[in-house]
Amino acid sequence: MAGSALDTIPADEARARLVNQLLADGSITSPSVEMAFRRVPRHLFAPDGVSIDAAYADDVVITKRGTDGRATSSISAPWLQATMLQAARLRPGARVLEIGSGGYNAALIAEVVGPHGAVTSIDIDPDVVAHARAALDTAGYPHVQVVTADAETGWPASAPYDAIIVTVEASDIPPAWTDQLAPDGILVVPLRMRGNTRGLTLTREGDHLIAISAIVCGFVPMQGASANPVTRRALRGDDVTLRIDDPDTQALNLDALTAALNGPRVDAWSPVTTPPATPFDSLHLWLASQPHPYGQLAVDRHRAADMDPQNWVACPALLTQDSIAYLATRKLDDTTWQFGAHGYGPQAAPLAQHILDLIAVWDRRYRNEPGPHIAVYPSRATLPPTKQPRLLVPRCHTITAITWTTSGGPA
Ligand SMILES: C[S@@+](CC[C@H](N)C(=O)[O-])C[C@H]1O[C@@H](n2cnc3c(N)ncnc32)[C@H](O)[C@@H]1O
Fold this sequence. Notes:
By secondary structure, the chain is of the alpha+beta class. 25% of the residues lie in helices and 32% in strands.
């Protein structure tokens, strides 16, 4: 339980302040979700030593780390929990499966579905389940069921579910989730597609699922039978980590790519610009959607400041055997940032130019669209043909199709 002598304000006051902030920034739009956030004492679910301020910040609270120091469990950020609960369109009396526990989000769901609803929360980690159970009992939610189970099998005993809310990063949709979902049920899942995770709200359409909304988000990775971590490779010593989410990474020549990054940089600048603080996540997904070897770079800001990528944590990059180019931006003035690319290696210039060409197409056709159409098919399904640009993400159980369309029809 969070809270200490150092807390600056009482928990009730901190909770009211958080809810007001979530209402003001548009994260909470539903009265029942607002009521849930006002009622559930988030600090009771945070580990000892977490201050009231931290428990009620609009931020993640890490609850467990693995031996490598990476988080394996957390209480997700309130804005994201509110968004996912609203996406699930929970009604009083609904039956809900939460995948990935902690207790707090399950208590929020229990408030929204009310006394005639049913909430089951599963987690692969018995420590997380024990903590969630104790906190739910203390907070007054003994009726929420928490069980130790692997996401891969879901929890058939309490199915069918009107909503399944997955709160751990998935790279695939196991058949158990669709089997246990009611015919008109909603599946909310952070799905990783070629390194890019989007919180998808999926509904059934014939033999497949379609996304009716998609938000940028990040979650701790899936463990257990469906674990499928991205491949991480160090470049230039440990200055740069290359993340690859494609099955075939054998062709990567890490020595050649490191040699490229140690050599001169080619800069290329696009006429396409953006105002500051304006999201352009669809550009990231567009670059990932190309039939080209692709990865994401995490660059150490201190040791490799010279690289200056657009994003220091996950910068889209196109690769060849011996060359690499990644997305860049530079400030032109207080209202304008310019897109560009930095290239390294023998193919630096054509690779950087290729990124500029892709930026131009995105700007012309897709920038002002709501985003690509995303559909998840069973892996043996026959996909409808299309003339539009389409990325297929084949996994064990499913193929996700990301299709780029324009509202004006074929471009
Ligand atoms: C972000 S936390 C869940 C947050 C929680 N829903 C809350 O109240 O905010 C993700 C959880 O997923 C769990 N997890 C990871 N892989 C899993 C799997 N295969 N099956 C079930 N749970 C899994 C982790 O142990 C971790 O506790």
